[in-house]
Amino acid sequence: MEISWNARYDTGIQTIDEQHQELFRIVDQLRRQVQDGADRGGIEALLKDLVACSERHFAAEETLMGQFGYPDLTQHVSEHASMLTSLHELLNKFQESQQVLALMVPTFMEGWLKHHISDGDFGFVTFLKARDLA
Fold first, then answer.
1. CA-to-CA distance for 3 and 60, rounded, in angstroms?
2. Phi and psi at residue 129, in whole multiples of 5°?
3. In terms of residue numbers, what domain contains 44?
4. Which residues are CB-neighbours of 11 under 8 A, at least 6 positions away?
5. Residue 37: which CATH number?
6. Residue 114 belongs to some domain of the structure
């Protein structure tokens, strides 16, 4: 089962959409490698990529939200921090040789991404549109 970008997640903010698409690509690659029985090093590299990409994306989103005075910024930052904590914990557990954990990451990330974009990021888009900023 492929994890793929869908136009319904398009926020209309090019940079954010490109970063979301990159996250979906990494999660899909991770799922395929796990299903294909890829070596531990390849899976670990993708997990590290996922963490790094998430960190960059969250920082970009938070900067943009701060620039526009988004009133729900604190809540959004809290969601990002919680997700990063979870990702770091998953990576650490994987590095402790719990290969089964890698199977859970794509499913976890797919659900989180879809929920976060639909419920969290679109709140920011609505805020921007209401002020003719997007």
1. 23
2. -65, -40
3. 14-122
4. 17, 20, 117, 121, 122, 124, 125
5. 1.20.120.50
6. yes
Residue 68 has φ and ψ, to the nearest 5°, of -100, 5
Contact between 128 and 68 under an 8 Å Cβ cutoff? The reply is: yes
Those residues whose C-beta lies under 8 Å from the C-beta of residue 116, and which sit 6 or more positions away, are: 79, 83
CA distance 113 to 11: 13
Whether the predicted pLDDT of 57 surpasses 80: yes
CA atoms 41, 3, 36, 84: torsion sign = positive
On whether the CB atoms of residues 102 and 43 are closer than 8 A, the answer is yes
| Lowest mean pLDDT across 54-58, 102-106, 112-116, 123-127 | 102-106
Measured in residues, the chain has a length of 134
